Amino acid sequence: MFKKFSMRVLSILLVTMLVLGLSISCKKAKDDTGSSTSSKTNKAKNPEDYKATLTSWGWDDTYWKTMTKAFNKKYPNIKFEYTPMANGESLQKYQTALASGAALPDIAWAIIDSRGKLFELNMWEALNKAPYNFDKSKVFDYLDPILVNSKGDVCGIEQSICPAGMAYRRDLAKEYLGTDDPEKIAELLPDWDTFIAKGKEIKEKSDGKVFMIPSISDIQQIIRDQDATKWFDGDTVQVTKALKRTIDLLAKFRDAGIVDKLDAWSPAWYASYGQGKHIFAGCATWTSQFVIQPNDKDGKDKGHWGLTNIPEGNISWGGTTLGIAKTCKNKDAAWEFVKFATMSKEGADVLKSIGMFTTVKSMYDDKEFASFKDPWFGGQDTGKYFLEKIVPKIKLKPMSKDNNVIHDALNLVTTSLNNDKKMTASDALDKLKSEIKSKLPNMKIK
Question: Of 94, 321, 370, 395, which has the most beta carbons under 10 Å away?
Answer without folding.
Answer: 321
